[in-house]
Amino acid sequence: MEEAAPDCLFARAAQCLMLSEPSAKTAATARTAADFAAGSLAIRDDAPLPGPITAPGRPGRPHLVSPRELPRRGLGTAEGRLALLHAVAHIEFNAINLAWDAVYRFRGMPEEYYRDWIGVAADEARHFTLVQARMAGLGGSYGDFDAHDGLWEMAVKTADSCLARMALVPRVLEARGLDVTPGMIARLHSVGDAASAGILEVILREEVAHVAAGSRWFAYCCEREGHDPDVTFAALIAEHVRGALKGPFNLDARRAAGFSAVELARLEAAA
Fold first, then answer.
1. What domains lie within the chain, and their CATH numbers?
2. CA 244, CA 56: separation in Å to the nearest integer?
3. What is the pLDDT of residues 115-142, one digit of tens each?
4. Whole-model pTM?
5. In b/e form, how buried is each residue of 210-239, taking b as 16+ CB within 10 angstroms?
């Protein structure tokens, strides 16, 4: 990624994206969000164009494997709860990178678009820090378990289209968290881990707004490009998602996140 003026939002987004060490990435994310809110960073029209998408900055661990290679663990042991929290931490770390890439890569969007995704990056960094601290309390840390790279693989597939990115990352991959997190919270409560459940409750509540940002900007891109959102969303899922999306769906959360009645009916019929 090319150098740009230090007051350029896109340059700072690239720096956050490429930092590998988790605490450095979360700290830089918080600083950049604060600087943008203070008016210190400009959305510069003369910034270098985004470079081709590459692997983001991330630590040497966790080791990335196929999802099929990840073992299933029960929550009756501390190791099982650590494995669950590690999976959440990995999603949140990837989500920081996804938010910064959405800022860095897609130019010519309204200022509110960048404000939304900078806010998402800051939230995801805070979520990661919360989960990491809870893991430390249980004697673990990020990198202790293997993980998969499905979120970033979808980022690569959608690097040339803001419309496709908004449809398939927030509204498919991240929206899946709205469906499965309530069950995870209930399971943690069932084994007496209210502290971990409480963190997931915070994440679930705030992720609705993140998926809603995806819905908002997907609709914007569809209108700008003259596409019907319902038809386009279904076509993108058929093209890029293997098999039908799995239910059951958290319909209340998805409605709050901007899914239309037509979209929800189609998802339920196909599941």
1. 86-270 (1.20.1260)
2. 29
3. 999 999 999 999 999 999 999 999 999 9
4. 0.94
5. bbbbbbbbbbbbbeeeebebeebbbebbee
